[in-house]
């Protein structure tokens, strides 16, 4: 079995005109809403992972659309939720996550491939919706006005 790498990215996608945050509903836990996240693959940089995950999860090509993906130069270490630990090697309980921001001038059409649904929410509502303390912290740090 191939285990997930305990290094990942979090990409906060938000629309600047109305200050709305994109939140995605997980397939493997429909009560769990989050921003774009993904595992850093071997030989990938965090930036390359962020670009790939945005394309894979919402169908938006950052480079083709000439969007500015901002590296926050910030990372956090968090405990992996018990329901997701089976994806990691048995001795792994924590993941290190690198944060990125993706400001959009408007709400782009979203093409879901890995999630059930999405919502554009004011930052306060996005904070209240997510179960992830690190996702909450990133929104509070960068998007609450």
UniProtKB/TrEMBL annotation:
Mg(2+) binds at residues 53, 57, 114. One of its GO terms (molecular function) is metal ion binding. Residues 2-143 form the Nudix hydrolase domain. Pfam families: NUDIX. Substrate binds at residues 4, 26, 37, 78-81, 132. Keywords: Hydrolase, Magnesium, Metal-binding. GO terms for biological process: AMP biosynthetic process; ATP biosynthetic process; folic acid biosynthetic process. SUPFAM superfamilies: Nudix. It comes from [Haemophilus] felis. Binds 1 Mg(2+) ion per subunit. Coiled coil: none annotated. This is Dihydroneopterin triphosphate diphosphatase. Its cofactor is Mg(2+).
